[in-house]
């Protein structure tokens, strides 16, 4: 199956670097770079796919999640999982396809932070795509997959969207206004449910309580707003935090590091 990035009007296709994506091997690495963004509508692959951003930001929708990918964060999408990708502005990424026969590999969508070691291994694999040293390429591929399997899954920051329309109404409103305070009674009324029924249904469909889902949604917005140049204090205010320090603590609990400062001098 050939990788094809379908562009929106006035948006160029993604440049792909690879000799033969469909048949080159069990693990097929490639690199993409383009200047004006792209959109890849809902589709599936018959192989697993892993990609991470080197430059630029993108949003991946997969398995009911909206996954925000800043530089240094990657997503694993198993074979057969429908997904779409939106990227606005300049972007560059590394990626590879993995045949379903390669084991072990993650069985679910995973979002991970890219370690220096993983990045170096992928870059080396890209450089040696056409190397005749097949055993070396296989060892590199095994190491790449091992690092992905060992990495901590930070995908919880992209909360699962509920299936039912009544619950989606609440979640869509929170996406538009993440600073909204937790209001179980108001949300339940909007969904035409009792508070108890609403809370139970929400947990059944998302795996989280409404309050926990709301917290993860707020953290989900942090990187994009910082990349746009918004000061951390303003990001905290827009997300309903009392202070930048409070936001930093919440962010660090999930990622193990404070929020990035992409526009810091």
Concise structural overview:
By secondary structure, the chain is an alpha+beta fold.
Q: What does this protein look like?
A:
This protein is an alpha+beta fold and 265 residues long. It has 2 domains: 142 residues, Regulatory protein AraC (Jelly Rolls); 91 residues, Arc Repressor Mutant, subunit A (Orthogonal Bundle), CATH 1.10.10.60. It is 36% helix and 22% strand. The chain is built from 9 helices and 10 strands. A hairpin with a 2-residue loop joins strand 5 and strand 6. Helix 1 packs antiparallel against helix 2 and helix 4 packs across helix 5. The longest helix is centred in the middle third of the chain and has 17 residues. The protein is globular, with a radius of gyration of 20 Å. The N terminus is likely disordered.
Secondary structure elements and their pairing?
Blueprint: E1 15-17, E2 27-34, E3 37-43, E4 48-55, E5 58-62, E6 65-69, E7 73-77, E8 83-88, E9 91-98, E10 110-113, H1 116-127, H2 134-150, H3 165-176, H4 184-190, H5 195-206, H6 210-220, H7 222-227, H8 232-238, H9 244-255
Antiparallel strand pairs: 1-2, 2-9, 3-8, 4-7, 4-9, 5-6, 5-8, 7-10
List keywords for this structure.
4-stranded antiparallel beta sheet; alpha+beta; 9 helices; Arc Repressor Mutant, subunit A; 265 residues; 2 domains; Jelly Rolls
